[in-house]
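Homework-ish question, so no full write-ups if that breaks the rules, but can someone show me the predicted structure for this set?
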Amino acid sequence: MATLELQDLRKSFGTTPVLHGIDLALRDGEMLVIVGASGCGKSTLLRLVAGLEVPTSGRIVLDGQDVARRDPAERDIAMVFQNYALYPHMSVFDNMAYGLKIRGLSKDDIKARVQEAADMLGLGPLLARKPRQLSGGQRQRVAMGRAIVRHPKLFLFDEPLSNLDAKLRVTMRAEIKRLQRRMGVTSLYVTHDQVEAMTLGDRLLVLHQGVAVQLATPMEVFERPANTYVAGFIGAPAMNLLPGTLSHAGTAVTLGNGLTIPFADGKRDGADGRKLTIGIRPEHVVLDHTGVPMQIDLVEPLGSETVLIGRLPDGELLSVKVPGRGPTTDQVMIAFNAATLHVFDADTGLRLG
Amino acid sequence: MNGRVDWVAHLVLCCGVLLFVLPLWLLVAGATQDAGAISRGDLSLLPDLRNLGVFWSVLNDRAPGGAPVWHMLLVSAAMALAIAAGKIVISLLSAYAVTFFRFPFRMLCFWTIFITLMLPVEVRIVPTYAVMADFGLINSFTGLAMPLIASATATLLFRQVFLAVPDELVEAARMDGAGPLRFLRDILLPVSAANMAALFVIVFVYGWNQYLWPLLVATDPSLDTIVIGIVKMIGQDSVTDWNRVMATAVLALLPPVAVVLLMQRWFVKGLTEGEK
Amino acid sequence: MTFFGSHRLQKAHPSAKGPSLERRTIFAGWVLPVLLVAPQLLLTVFFFLWPAARAMWTSLERQDAFGIRTEFVGLDNFADLFADPLYLDSAVRTVGFCAAVAVLAMGMALLLAVFADREIRGRAIYRTLLIWPYAIAPAIAAVLWVLLLHPQIGLVAHGLKAIGILWDYKLNDAQAMTVVILASAWKQVSYNFIFFLAGLQSIPKAVIEAARMDGARGWRRFRTITLPLLAPTMFFLIVVNIVYAAFDTFATIQALTQGGPGKATETLMLKVYRDGLINLDLGSSSAQSVVLMVGIVVLTALQFRFIGRRNAE
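A: Not a homework solution, just the prediction itself:
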């Protein structure tokens, strides 16, 4: 149980800056998911907290102490690696016991803790096996067991599910969440998968090119994304982003295809003609015969829903998600509901309002 | 497989095998035959099974002016084992230091060690002898083994292996709190066990088969290796006990061949991985 | 004292290159690694560098006939060496010898490896039987060949006599050379075989199959696909074989002919031995050693330059 605070954390490799001033405060027992595309710096951030890299500047305060320059061994942090990193020549038991052995725990203590973790993870019958005799999911659980037995102040997860097949990922996701809740250990979880992020995190930190662009609960990130990057990243299929201009003294936006939509939630600053980017999620596009026509190029049946991918008359691409089967025609009439609009500044990408 | 037998392959391979097994077979067969008959040129391909005891009795033979065969075999074994053990330990430690750390003059150390690849013992034979003489190590067992321990092949092989250890393994160990020595002992060594086995084979054979260096360093016949003994035996113009010489040669061959055959898979793997 | 320093050196962004020359994950500190590398370094200095340096120094000196005075003569020893017809003879002889041994040993090994790579029954047994000769000492290999070719007792010798060839390699120059070449090459075949086999097996099956689909058969496929892909192995083996033939054959030649008859089989290595340790002409033999050292350095440098370039592709 511990609090973690990152203060203006920066990291450069040589002259290449990778992280630009990250500020973060984790509450005790919280699971924070750091999410972003490849190369955004999320793994680097995790490794800084782990102690596997040294920050260029900034503080890492764990339970009130700045550990930024301490070794991993001195931080009392446990990590679950993407490729499991199990010791190939040791049995499952020994893999989990290794860290405890180094810390000088008694044999009985070690046995008790390993057994406890094994029970939690269903690894009991596998304790004598070697990693090469285990499946991917089993190895992942051993990796987690190795972290659990340490009873650390902080858990770090480095994309632990990315090497598992889709179905296993779903079950393991739930297990991780259950485990973290039960143990109440403060955790940092890194992933590029936005579904994992949404389902696992108490809060999300969205990173884009080394900058923290939004720190909020999953629903808030989904409902009120801070910029166009977050808007396009969270939610599948991705939010539609259409160019528009501010009009009617800041009370409406004019899109292409003759659409003008008054804002449902008040004015926006700026002169008429200010360039905007309007976001609307595919599931919020309504089929409305009074709207504009959309040419359907591709239909993706997902079973419970159908995604229609097509073009508006002015050439803009649009995705629409409809429940059930969806239309069989190659053209539909669609409209946008003002209440579900997201308004961003076209130049900065930042959310307006 | 097609079901058709590849006659050409079998033919070629059989010829090859014959080329390499025949001389050995002759050696074994000849050892059991009568010396006189051999001198006359009546060496038969069939061993005389009544004389299998010759392999045991030659153990007490002496090389001209030398030690008994059993003693020479012992010296060879001790030398080969000492060189193998010494080389493996030293090379492992250096390779570890050079791959897993950064320290001033590290690359200089690496290249210095690497240079030894280009200096086989034969090339530096005279001055190495002089250096040994200065240390007073001529005619000693240490003098026999030491100069053959330091060469770089083993270091390069270990370095190759160590470079390939996954980063995550090292990081997991560090997260678990393992320092460099613990990591070496608990993780690196077990993971490199197969390579050590391969290296053992290579170095053991190398040590056992040495000729020039032991020839120089050991003037006392009690330090003769079996290889030296054999050369002495056939070096004489008036060899009469051909069968006994052959039997001794078989005994001289046995340990390295046994080591290679028993550890063949590791050996081949270690040899080809290390050089690529 | 903890061996963890406060700074760990890290490389810049690990790029997606091929086999790296450095590790990304390392340990901090310098005391431990220095201690670990020290033993090998010390041995290297005392048993390699120091003797090599001494050889280089001695090559610049000359002793008088009684071995009492030594004087510095600069490069005179080298000059004498290259003017000495005996040395030049030996050099030419060695080059020829090395070439013959390399070609013979590699050719035979490649032939056997190609067939041993095929899917036939008993493959494993053939391989084992062709690998074991690696364990034979060069000196013992000589013994084996003596037994085959000895004028009195050798089976092959008898055979040759039977068809009318006067066979005595102790007296006939060409025969002596033939014997040492054969014995040396014979010993080296299994080493080459191991590497050729590994090289052949490392060629992805998919590549061969693609060639077959493209219509390349048998010899053509071997010449245009297999051989080029074996090139790194071949280059590596050429250097190894040359070094082997120049140096490791000492025991074989010494055991078979002692360099004779006369000087017919005296390679440069034997000459170093004879001049340095038998005739005690330190200056000359040191100069010869230095020349040999330079030769190896050049060969090894070429080898690593070539292999390094291949790895980068």
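Now go work out the reasoning yourself. Hint: Strands of chain C lie at 61-63, 70-72.
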